[in-house]
Sequence to fold (365 residues):
Amino acid sequence: MMIPMVDLKRQYSRLKTQIDKALGSVLEQTQFILGPNVAALEKEVAAYHGLPFAIGCANGTDALLLALRASGVVAGDEIITTPFTFIATAEVAAQLGAKAVFVDICPDSFNIDPQKIAAKITPKTKAIIPVHLFGHPADMEPIMKIAREHNLKVIEDCAQAFGAQYQGKTVGTFGDIGCFSFFPSKNLGCYGDGGMVITADEEIAAKIKMLRNHGSAVRYYHSEVGYNSRLDEIQAAILRIKLAQIDNFNEERRANASAYCRVLAGQDLVPPTQRDGCRHVYHQFTLRLKNRQAVADALAKAGIASAIYYPVPLHQQEVFLKMYGPQESLPVAENCCAEVLSLPMFPELTQEEIRKIADVIVHAL
Fold:
């Protein structure tokens, strides 16, 4: 039995009739760029989050880049974020000539530690980018308090957390802007690249909409240098079908996470936790293990995938060492990078597969 990290074929089989019909409709209509499905998806995602504006774009990285541009970030500014995330979160700051300033994380949620943010704020600080990593919400209440006290923008990186909740509200609705990725393996994923930005700010929404389309609000009239970053109509049609099922998919992920925790209880490992007031949507099910390599090797031998997200924290990545020079140690993030291992996680994962994965892990410990 081969068990992948994610099996997109199973989900396609569940939705095949709807998806095939939607794709056929797009091909019949031949409106491929900023067509009716993009407009409809934007309205549906905005409504899901209880916000007035959602703007599709080409991918999650562009969503972050557009958010920073719309927030007025320029060369020389500083952006506070986590070192324990995919590089896109910090990469976009560097692309604008700004500096990513890294703050250590909480060991239980893997998210930025709000108690350590204030010490990193300087007169150059322009924004904070908390990441809701692996589907667990960052601790937004203290983050927003700090941001208000220092007049900072907050851009939520929700790439792995569509549908996650903090204190009863969906992530992406606390800060000035929420940014999403629709990469195929995400909780809400399309069949290529795709992204979206949500906001309650009409001015920010208008600027992002203009920037995504070559800096043009009126066709062939360009007020700024922008980007070609438009969500594809075919991807939007697929996402509309999946959006209608996202809460069901997330509940299935949560049920699978609970099953993992049951069968791995009492073992010499640290399973992911869910903080009070949070609704984790388990984009990844990530353990902490002292003997990670032995477990990973045993899983591979049994035909079971696993992955390390992430092996090197951003403050130790070669690119940022070249840009910023030697960085201070961030011990929690560094320890997590040495211990984390993510197991297969997707809605269609079966109980039999979870038991097999757990059995291999138990025998490897």
Remarks:
- The chain has a mean pLDDT of 97.
- The chain has twelve helices and 14 strands.
- The first helix runs from residue 8 to 29.
